[in-house]
């Protein structure tokens, strides 16, 4: 039985069809089928709440778009894939651009709107077991002080939202991301009956090498694993550092809070051998600690299909370019 105190070691992918209102596509059934065929059992759906607004009114929900999310949930049920519904952009908070006009951490109207949306999802999926569907309230709450974020405020908002969700669906398992963009577990939530989600992007100088928002010069040398960034010869990371990074999360799990790694991966600009070596170590530690994971993403710049790498011999596979080596690393863990 799935509970917030002990999550299964689900393994799978983030599916990003509705991560932005500019995209707002249906979720392909084939994604769920392929995950099933390979032996995975988890899909996180990071979504932008603006996708299902009617006439851009945050108090009006578009039934036709919500039906597309229902379809994804049904694909999950059909293929034995757990579906985790996440508001990547929630009313009042996002890590993406542009920022929200109001902050859910400080603004009562944003809290009201966020509650309205999560209550609607709770009503919609009431009765479906948490073995099939969980809710992940926000994506990566920020650093302390950003957008008015505080741990006390996070607790207040989580309590408000879970009260609304559990009024409609008392058994729904709710997952909350750690703060500082998912890096740090939140002790302030441990008595609220929610699970928590970590991230697998450390160290960022490796996983996000040459990401456009990192402002790295075009000719900057690639990172090494084990090793460090080219401009810091005295900095050395290896699997031991990953164990230390996730140790507080293991302590959280040992205290009776379910833990899952909701995102992780390496951008396609990271040299492929380095990405595979890092991924092998990261997944080894997650397995040692008993945590499931979801790669960001299935298809795209961090994924195993159509990732746009220039140093991979892709396999043509059902209309996609498959990174078979990366898939095999995932399957070992």
Structure description:
α1 packs parallel to α2 and α7 runs parallel beside α8. It is globular and about 50 Å long. It has helices at residues 29-38, 63-79, 108-125, 151-168, 179-182, 204-207, 239-254, 272-289, 324-331, and strands at 11-14, 42-48, 53-54, 57-61, 82-90, 93-94, 133-136, 174-177, 195-200, 259-264, 292-295, 315-317, 320-322. The strands form 3 sheets. An 8-stranded parallel beta barrel has the order 1-2-5-7-8-9-10-11. A two-stranded antiparallel ribbon has the order 3-4. The protein has a two-stranded antiparallel ribbon with strand order 12-13. 34% of the residues lie in helices and 18% in strands. It has one domain (11-202, 240-303): Alpha-Beta Barrel (TIM Barrel). It has 333 residues and is α/β, with parallel strands linked by helices.
Descriptive labels:
alpha/beta; TIM Barrel; 9 helices
**Could you state the oligomeric state of the chains shown?**
single chain
> What gyration radius follows from the Cα positions, in whole Å?
19 Å
The CATH architecture term is Alpha-Beta Barrel
Strand order of the largest sheet: 1-2-5-7-8-9-10-11
**What characterizes the major β-sheet?**
8 strands, parallel, barrel
What is the arithmetic mean of pLDDT? 97
CATH homologous superfamily heading = Glycosidases
Helix content, binned percent: 25-40%
Number of distinct helices: 9
N-to-C order of helices and strands = EHEEEHEEHEHEHEHHEHEEEH
In CATH, the topology is named TIM Barrel
Number of domains: 1
Instruction: Kindly report how far apart the N and C termini lie.
Output: 22 Å
Morphology: globular
Indicate the CATH class: Alpha Beta
Instruction: Kindly name the structural category.
Output: alpha/beta
Measured by DSSP, the beta-strand proportion falls in 15-25%
**Which segments are poorly predicted (pLDDT under 50) over 5 or more consecutive residues?**
none
Strand element count: 13
């Amino acid at each position: 039985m799935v509970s917030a105190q002990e999550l299964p070691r689900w393994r799978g992918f983030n599916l990003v069809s509705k991560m932005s209102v500019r995209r707002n596509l249906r979720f392909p059934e084939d994604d769920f089928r392929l995950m099933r065929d390979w032996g995975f059992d988890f899909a996180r759906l990071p979504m932008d709440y603006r996708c299902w607004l009617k006439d851009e009114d945050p108090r009006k929900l578009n039934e036709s778009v919500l039906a597309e999310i229902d379809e994804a949930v049904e694909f999950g049920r059909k293929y034995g894939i757990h579906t985790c519904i996440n508001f990547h952009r929630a009313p009042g908070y996002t890590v993406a651009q542009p920022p929200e006009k109001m902050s859910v951490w400080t603004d009562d109207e944003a809290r009201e709107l966020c509650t309205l949306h999560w209550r609607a999802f709770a009503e919609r999926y009431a009765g479906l077991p948490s073995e099939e569907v969980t809710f992940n309230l926000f994506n990566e709450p920020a650093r302390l002080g950003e957008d008015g974020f505080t741990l006390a405020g996070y607790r207040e908002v989580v309590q408000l939202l879970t009260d609304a969700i559990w009024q409609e669906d008392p058994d729904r398992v709710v997952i909350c991301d750690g703060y500082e963009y998912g890096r740090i577990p939140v002790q302030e939530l441990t008595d609220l009956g929610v699970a928590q989600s970590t991230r697998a992007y450390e160290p960022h100088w490796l996983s996000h090498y040459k990401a456009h928002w990192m402002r790295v010069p075009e000719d900057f040398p690639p990172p090494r694993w084990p090793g460090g960034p080219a401009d810091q010869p005295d900095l050395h990371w290896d699997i031991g550092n990953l164990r230390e990074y996730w140790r507080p999360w293991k302590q959280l799990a040992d205290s009776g809070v379910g833990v899952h790694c909701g995102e992780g991966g390496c951008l396609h600009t990271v040299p492929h051998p380095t990405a595979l070596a890092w991924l092998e170590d990261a997944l080894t530690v997650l397995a040692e600690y008993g945590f499931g994971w979801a790669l960001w993403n299935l298809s795209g710049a961090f994924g195993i299909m159509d990732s746009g790498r220039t140093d991979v011999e892709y396999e043509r596979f059902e209309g996609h370019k498959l990174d078979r080596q990366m898939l095999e690393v995932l399957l070992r863990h």
